[in-house]
Design a protein that fits this description.
- The protein has 164 residues and is mainly alpha-helical.
- It is 70% helix and 6% strand.
- The strands form two sheets. The protein has a two-stranded antiparallel ribbon with strand order 1-4. Strands 2-3 form a two-stranded antiparallel ribbon.
- The longest helix has 30 residues.
Length: 164
Amino acid sequence: MEISLSTAHKKYIRNEVLAGCVINALLAFAFTFMLFRNHPRVRLWGGDGIALDLLVTLFMLTLLANVAVMLITRKRVRAGRIPRLESSALKVMGFRLPRNLFLRALLAAVLMTAIIGPLSIGAFVALEISSMPFWPFVAFKMVYGSVVGALSAPVLLRAVLTDE
């Protein structure tokens, strides 16, 4: 089903995604700094490695950021600050999203982790990056956190804008 977005909806989604990217970058910075500050180099593999950290980052940022943005958006729609979209059913790739916000965010987190995670780790392997110095890793994680937020949020925002 095609959903026609008004200019106001497009602007709202764009602004929320941009704000989410900034917040995700700051969260990625904080957690990466706290977890890896004693590592001059961060290895790709291992319990404290880049690969596992990317999977955790994907899952947690997707889950938490999207729950937050959907709750805020739902509240704004109910208060009349942003108009609800006319469509009552949103399908993504032929599948109907769950009505429950937490389940929507959980589904997005699982899918992002299962799809983007292996691709990200595969890129490190293909580029033969077996470790990174601490500060370049922090910078990478800030960009990665921003991208994570920008991938799933637009779809979930459209879904919550259609909620009754």
